[in-house]
């Protein structure tokens, strides 16, 4: 399939990461058990998979799904719905659920993920953003080594601070993602200053990359997308919110209406795939993380800078690779697309995406549109030429994507 040089690189990388891959198998076993146990505890059965229509009153499948998610995440309650259109919508719903005019949201892990900027908005923007509603917003930048600035976090908490925001994943920035243990440390720090703050975590991309989740170390509320990790590549849409009962309930009032909350909402035939996706998620996250480790090992052998490095601990799916020219970025992203089962005949090109200062190139040959537990890659065309890749439903597919990308680079004389 590939020439000798590429095959040799693959074999070398696989040898280097062998021990790490074994450790990951233990993690997957642990999380697989955790999920199965939650299903068993709630006696999940065939009839739970039946969908509902109309109001969806007494949809037992939906009710049990919430209980299963809550147990898996060690939370008091959860709200798992296909009605969330994206991760951003889910996170927005959680924040609007608990914040009121005059309250402050204080983000302590630096500037949040791009799509949240408009949810936070600006005062008087007329869009119904948090700040438009009179919620105030502040953020504490991370230190230059990517760790939280505890001194400024302590100083930044005021009597109005109602919600502390934490982003677990690196998102698309060159910083480490936070481990659940580090998030626990942040919780202790802020609750020490103000015991009644609500700690919220954007858990996108983090689920099942460790044995614990943020809600098990004192986080009050968290949210994520079903077209990322916990949907297991099967859930076609949706999001989840998990945490303390009272806060999840407030978020449910925001999703539907006060007084209605999570008691209503037809599942429209999505229930079985959401259950099955959760069952598959620990394994698929394991495949994707192995793929990221493999990619890091390959490109490190070739002398490129990677973040995280193959042997670093991982708490999200994202692998950043720093190349040396725009041609590398384009060859890499196009290679990922060429190895896809879906849309491999499409050649991605850099384009001026709304909201971005530089052209961006993206590879996404996915079964679920935008599904980023599936192998995908993107890169803004600018120095320092960083490509971000994530996901992969099978480890073999991740490898094929990386090797095809290498092949492109080789053919273009870039290696
Ligand atoms: C993907 C993601 C989001 C937003 O999710 P969308 O589904 O794209 O709206 C928010 N935060 C992080 C860290 C993410 O990775």
Tell me what the structure shows.
- It comes from Paenibacillus xerothermodurans.
- This is Methionine gamma-lyase family protein.
- InterPro entries: Met_g_lyase_put (IPR009651), PyrdxlP-dep_Trfase (IPR015424), PyrdxlP-dep_Trfase_major (IPR015421).
- The protein has helices spanning 4-41, 60-72, 87-98, 117-120, 150-156, 180-193, 245-255, 271-301, 326-338, 395-411; strands at residues 77-81, 104-107, 136-139, 161-167, 198-202, 221-225, 239-243, 305-307, 319-322, 360-364, 376-380, 386-390.
- The protein starts with a helix and ends with a helix.
- A hairpin with a 5-residue loop joins strand 11 (376-380) and strand 12 (386-390).
- The protein has a 7-stranded mixed beta sheet with strand order 1-7-6-5-4-2-3, sandwiched between helices. A 5-stranded antiparallel beta sheet has the order 8-9-12-11-10, covered by helices on one side.
- It contains 10 helices and 12 strands.
- By secondary structure, it is of the alpha/beta class.
- The protein has 2 domains: 4-30 and 279-411, Methioning gamme-lyase, C-terminal domain (Aspartate Aminotransferase, domain 1), CATH 3.90.1150; 52-268, Aspartate Aminotransferase, domain 2 (3-Layer(aba) Sandwich).
- The structure holds pyridoxal-5'-phosphate.
- Residues 86-88, 113, 115, 167, 169, 171, 202, 204-205, 225 line the site of pyridoxal-5'-phosphate.
């Amino acid at each position: 399939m590939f020439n000798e040089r590429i095959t040799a690189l693959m074999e070398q990388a696989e040898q280097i990461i062998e021990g790490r891959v074994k450790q990951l198998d233990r993690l997957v076993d642990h999380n697989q058990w955790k999920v199965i146990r939650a299903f068993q505890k709630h006696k999940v059965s065939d009839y739970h998979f039946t969908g509902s229509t109309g109001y969806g009153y007494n949809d037992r499948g939906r009710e049990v799904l919430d209980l299963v998610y809550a147990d898996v995440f060690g939370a008091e309650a959860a709200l798992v719905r296909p009605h969330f259109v994206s991760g951003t919508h889910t996170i927005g719903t959680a924040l609007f659920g608990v914040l009121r005019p005059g309250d402050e949201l204080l983000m302590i892990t630096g500037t949040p993920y791009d799509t949240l900027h408009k949810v936070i908005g600006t005062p008087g923007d007329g869009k119904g953003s948090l700040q438009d509603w009179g919620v105030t917003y502040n953020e504490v930048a991370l230190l230059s080594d990517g760790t939280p600035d505890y001194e400024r976090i302590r100083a930044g908490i005021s009597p109005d601070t109602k919600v502390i925001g934490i982003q677990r994943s690196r998102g698309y920035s060159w910083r480490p993602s936070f481990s659940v243990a580090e998030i626990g440390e942040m919780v202790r720090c802020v609750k020490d200053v103000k015991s009644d703050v609500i700690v919220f975590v954007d858990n996108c991309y983090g689920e099942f990359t460790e044995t614990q989740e943020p809600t098990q170390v004192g986080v009050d509320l968290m949210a994520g997308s079903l077209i990322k990790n916990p949907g297991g590549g099967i859930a076609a849409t949706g999001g989840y919110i998990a945490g303390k009962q009272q806060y999840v309930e407030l978020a449910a009032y925001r999703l539907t209406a006060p007084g209605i909350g999570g008691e209503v909402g037809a599942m429209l035939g999505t229930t079985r795939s959401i259950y099955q996706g959760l069952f598959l998620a620990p394994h698929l996250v394991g495949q994707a993380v192995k793929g990221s480790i493999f990619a890091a090992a390959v490109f490190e052998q070739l002398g490129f800078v990677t973040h995280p490095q193959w042997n670093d601990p991982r708490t999200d799916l994202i692998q950043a690779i720093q190349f040396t020219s725009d041609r590398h970025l384009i060859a890499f992203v196009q290679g990922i697309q060429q190895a896809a089962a879906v849309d491999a005949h499409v050649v991605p090109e850099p384009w001026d995406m709304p909201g971005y200062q530089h052209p961006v190139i993206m590879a996404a040959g996915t079964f679920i549109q935008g599904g980023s537990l599936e192998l995908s890659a993107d890169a803004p065309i600018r120095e320092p030429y960083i490509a971000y890749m994530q996901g992969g439903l099978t480890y073999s597919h991740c490898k094929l994507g990386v090797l095809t990308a290498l092949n492109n680079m080789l053919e273009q004389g870039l290696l």
